[in-house]
Design brief:
The chain is α+β, with helices and mostly antiparallel strands. The protein contains 5 helices and 4 strands, in the order ααβαβαβαβ. The protein has one domain: 3-Layer(aba) Sandwich (Rossmann fold), CATH 3.40.50.150. The structure holds S-adenosylmethionine.
Length: about 140
């Protein structure tokens, strides 16, 4: 609720007209979207669930990756960021296991901060076990 309230305040202060907020499960929003409608998607520092017995709670699961592939346009970009090394590996495996995704051509240095990156609140807390990793994928 605090995050939603803060987002609404920023939208109002900057008089933004192109923002929509869903207070609920982001996976539902993706499910509701039509095929091939997104140019970009950002998954920034999702909950790490780093204990092995909690891994199954992670957002990145094969079904969700499949849904992302459905709603993203051909050539669309997907960025995933985390500061948990194991989640970076987990995501790389699962996204590349989907034949619709590949690494972006300029994705070689995973620790380089992308030019268009905006630092997030969670990132600032540095709670992970590694420097932030940025994985840029392309929807084929
Ligand atoms: C670790 S925080 C990161 C927040 C923000 N992206 C940042 O970097 O500062 C993860 C956030 O995702 C939210 N969250 C977890 N699962 C979600 C889901 N399925 N749909 C929408 N939000 C979710 C949590 O409530 C939490 O606020």
């Amino acid at each position: 609720m605090n995050g939603v309230a803060s987002a609404v305040r920023h939208v109002e202060e900057q008089a933004l007209k192109n923002v929509r907020i869903h207070e609920g499960d982001a996976r539902d929003v993706v499910d509701w979207l039509p095929d091939a409608c997104l140019d970009r998607a950002f998954i920034m520092f999702p909950d790490p669930w780093h204990k092995a017995r909690h891994n199954k709670r992670r957002l990145i699961q094969p079904e969700f990756v499949r849904e992302l592939a459905r709603v993203m346009k051909p050539g669309a970009a997907l960025r995933f960021a985390t500061d948990w090394a194991d989640y970076a590996e987990w995501t790389t495996e699962r996204v590349l296991a989907d034949p619709n995704f590949r690494f972006a051509d300029d994705a070689a240095d995973r620790n380089a901060i992308p030019a268009d990156h905006v630092t997030t609140r969670y990132e600032e807390k540095k709670l992970g076990d590694c420097a932030p990793v940025f994985l840029d994928f392309v929807r084929a």
